[in-house]
Amino acid sequence: MRSVVTPRLAVLAFSHFTIDAYSSFFSPLLPLLVAKLHLSLTLVGTLVALASLASSFSQPAFGLLADRIHRPWFIAFGPLVAAAFMSGIGMAPTFATLLTLLMLGGLGVAAFHPQAAALAREVSPRPSLAMSIFVTGGTLGYALGPLFAVTVVGTFGLERTWVAMIPGLVLACALLAWFARVQPRRRDPAARPRLAGLKPVLRPLTLLYFVVVCRSAVAFGFTTFLPLYLHRLGWSVSQGGTMLTVHLVFGALGGFLGGWLADRWGGRRVVVRSFVLATPLYLGFLFLPDWRGLVCLVAGGFFLQSSLPVNVVMGQELSPQHSSTISSLLMGAAWGVGALLIGPIGALADAQGLHAALLALAGLLAVGLMCALALPDVRRHAVPVDLAEPAIGTAGK
C-alpha cells in the first residue's frame, strides 16, 4: 500500500475530501430551507439541476485549461471558492440568492476536479487503485458533508452556516503555499492535446458517458430527496442527515473496493456487476418496510458507487493525453446531465409523490446496465501515448 499512497496522492485525496464535503453541505438542510423559503419539490429539483450547470457543465472548460497550464492552481483555488460560497447558504433570504451561492460555489468544485483527477492517476504506479483512493476521499467527504452541516446548524444556527468555511480556507492557503514552490510542468505548445484526438475513441467514450449519467442521476436523486423522504416519514432533520451520511459512507467504501477489484478483474466487469447488484437493492428500499428497506438502500449505494472511480480510469485509459479533459467529461458533464434529470423528478414528486418519483429514478439503473453491457474493452481502443510528462515537478517535496 505504501507504493500506492504517495504523499501527493494523500494530499489530493484529502483535498477531494474537503471540497466534496461542501458539495453535499446543503442536502440535509433542505427541510429547513424548504420551510424558510417556502419551496416546492419542483423548485428543489430545479435548484439541484441549475446548480449543476456551474459545478458540472463548466468542468470541460476547466479540463481544457488544466491540460495547458503549468501549475496545479485549480486544485488550490477550488476549495477556496467552494468554501466561501457554499457555507453561506443558511443566510440566503430568497431562492435566487440560494441558487446564486450554490452556482458560485459550484465553480470552485468544477475547477478542482479535472486537474486533481488527472494528477491522482499520474502520481501512483497503480492508477485504478490510486483513483479509487482519490475518489474515496471525495465520496467520504461527500458522505460526511451532511453530518458537518447539521452539526454546524445545530451548534450555531441556520443563519451562521458561514462558520463552516474555515476548514476550506485553511486548506486553500496551505495548497497555495505549497504549489508556489512546485516546479512548473514543462510543455511543448505544439504537443498540446486537441479535441480531434478523441475521435478514434468516440464510441466507447460515449457509452461510458451514458453509464456515468445513469449512475449519477440515481446517486444525485436519492441524495437530494432522501432527507425529505425520511422527514415525511417522521424522521427529524438530524436523523435524516445521519442516515444520508451512512448511505454515502458505504458508497465511498464501495468506490474503494471497485478500484481494487478493477486492477484484478478489469474495469468493465466491475461496472457491469455494480449495476446488476444495485438495481434490486434500490427497488428493495422502495418496497420493503422499516430497517430492511434502509439496509437495501445502504447496500445499493455501496454497489452502485463501486463503479465511480473505475469509470474515470477507463476514460483516461482511452486517451492519456486528454486525461484532464476526459475526467471533466465523466466527472463533470456526465454528472451534470444526471443532476439535470432531478428537475423533472422533483416535478413528478409534486404530482405523484416522492415514492413514485424515486421508483422512476431507480429505473435508470436498467438503462445504465444496458450501456455497461455494450462497453468494449477500453484498452484495445486506447490512443497510444506519444509524450510522457511528469504530473508535478520535483521541487517542493
UniProtKB/TrEMBL annotation:
This protein's record includes keyword Membrane: yes
Residue ranges of every copy of the Major facilitator superfamily (MFS) profile domain listed in the record: 8-380
Transmembrane segments annotated in the record for this chain: 37-57, 69-89, 95-112, 133-156, 162-180, 201-230, 242-263, 270-288, 294-314, 326-348, 354-375
InterPro entries xref list: MFS, MFS_dom, MFS_trans_sf
Gene Ontology MF term list: transmembrane transporter activity
Highest taxon above the source species: Bacteria
Any Pfam family hit: MFS_1
Cited Gene3D superfamilies: MFS general substrate transporter like domains
PROSITE patterns (UniProt xref): MFS
CDD domains per UniProt: MFS_FsR
Keyword rRNA processing: no
Keyword vocabulary terms for this entry: Membrane, Transmembrane, Transmembrane helix
Entry's Gene Ontology cellular component terms: plasma membrane
PANTHER family: FOSMIDOMYCIN RESISTANCE PROTEIN
Protein name: MFS transporter
Organism: Eiseniibacteriota bacterium
